[in-house]
Each structure stands twice: as C-alpha cells, then as structure tokens.
Amino acid sequence: MSAGMELMPFKAIEERGILVTNARGIHKIPMAEYTIGMLLQYEKKLKLLMKNEKEELWDRKIEVGELNGKTMLVIGVGAIGGEVSRLGKAFGMTTVGVNRSGKPVESIDQLYTLDNLLEAIPGADYIVSVLPSTDETKGFLQKEHFKAMKETAVFVNIGRGDLINDEVLIEALDAGELSYAILDVFDPEPLGKGHPFWRMENVTVTPHLSSKSGEYLPRTFAIFEKNMREYLEAGKDFTNVIDLSRGY
User: Fold this and answer.
1) For residue 237, is it within any domain?
2) Cα distance between residue 35 and residue 27, in whole Å
3) Would residue 145 show up in a list of annotated catalytic residues for this protein?
4) What average pLDDT does the segment 169-176 reach?
5) Does Transit peptide show up as a keyword for this record (predicted)?
6) Is residue 215 part of a domain?
7) Does the pLDDT at position 187 exceed 70?
8) 7, 191, 235, 238 - which has most CB atoms within 10 Å?
9) Which residue has the higher pLDDT, 186 or 234?
C-alpha cells in the first residue's frame, strides 16, 4: 500500500490476521518541498508577479515577506510533518508540532497533543495539516480552530480533504479570520467546476499533486523488497507495519 489507507477493510483484515505494511515516508521529500514552495509563493507574491509579467506591468511597490522568523505549526508530525518542519527550520522558522502522543520530535521546537491543538494555533503564522483520513480526523477542524488563528495566518492542507467542511473554511476566509489557504486535497476529488475555491483570491488550489515525484516507484519498491525478504526469511523486522485499530 501507499501512504493512504482510508479505503482498506480493516475489520476483515484484522479478523484474518493479515499483516499490512505501507510505503509511509516515501512522500516526505516532495510534500515538504511543495509546502515550503507554496509558502514562498505566498510571501514573495509570485502569483501577482506572474500576473504583472503577463500584463507587462512594472510595479516595485509590491510588499513581499519572509519565512525567516515566522512560526509554523505542523499538525501531524510523522515522516512527512517531520520533514516539513526540518525544512522550515532551515529557513529560520520556529516550528511547533502536534501529534497524538506529545512525544518529542526532532526539528520541532514545541510539541502539543492533538487534544491541545487550540492552545497551539494562536501563535502560528502558518498552519500545515498533514493528518491522514481516519474516523478521528474527519471534520476535525471546526469553526473554533479558525477563529483562534491570527488574521494574517496561512492554512495549508496536504493531508486529506475531509479534515474540514468546505463551508467552514470559506466562511472563515470571507470573515478575515485567516489570510490565505493553500489546498492540495479536497473532499470529494476532483474539485468540482464552479466550486468557490477556484475563484477565491485568497486560495491557491492544486490538484492533489504535492506527493508526486519521479522517485515514487524506486522508493516504494525499496520498502517492498525489504519487507518481502523479511517475510520469506521468517523475520519480524518489517518496515511500516500498519496498526489496524487506528487505520494507519
């Protein structure tokens, strides 16, 4: 399996005692690069600059920002979230992480549990969600979370689209509760024609491609080969064993 597991019949698999592994971690490099690239796009006003270029407009009054000195909150600091935060540190950002256990994570300056997310949000300039789709995370982000954000905050979702109801996010953006949203995942997909996200000036839409890379198959098969050898040799040191009770 790849990283996403939400379509798996976990109950039936568990009843049969089947071992399931996935390729968790193979997406961390492209997804982290996508995230930093999109934050740079926002701070450096690249969309506006490209528009001005097409219109042959020379405007040096455009205000651009920096990533340096900002605070990035990463919701879900597993393999992908950890790499996002590592790159964030390289750009001089303070990194705050959220995970289930609250256990320390390398490259995270401050850590919160998922239950304490509301405490972490107000200080963040960028909020990046890498959460998978599980019963626990579906619809997890509510109005209260967006109301807690800075008016200048940027929300990035590279996890799963069912983390939030679209109307909740649209309402928050229209009300100025946050500044911008960068969305690579949606529920359902593809994002339908005529959806408000396409037309909103404070939203960037990309077609679920943050994980795409020419290195996808080599990285996947390296994990598969290692696990297959382990299985054939009756070993137990499998990589990325899935906890069927949690769904990931």
Assistant:
1) no
2) 12
3) no
4) 99
5) no
6) no
7) yes
8) 191
9) 186
Q: Which of 6, 208, 219, 230 is catalytic?
A: 208
Sheet with 154-157, side-by-side order of all strands? 110-113, 94-99, 71-75, 126-129, 154-157, 180-183, 203-205
Would 14 be classed as within a structural domain?
A: no
Looking at residue 150, which CATH number applies to its domain? 3.40.50.720
- Of 14, 119, 189, 225, the active-site residue reads 189
Of 157, 234, 169, 221, which Cα lies nearest the Cα of 21?
221
**CA 41 and chain centroid, separation:** 16
Assess whether 160 carries a catalytic annotation. yes
pLDDT, residue 151, reads 99
**Structural domains counted in the chain:** 1
- Asked whether the whole model's pTM tops 0.85, one would answer yes
Domain residue limits at 185: 28-51+66-205
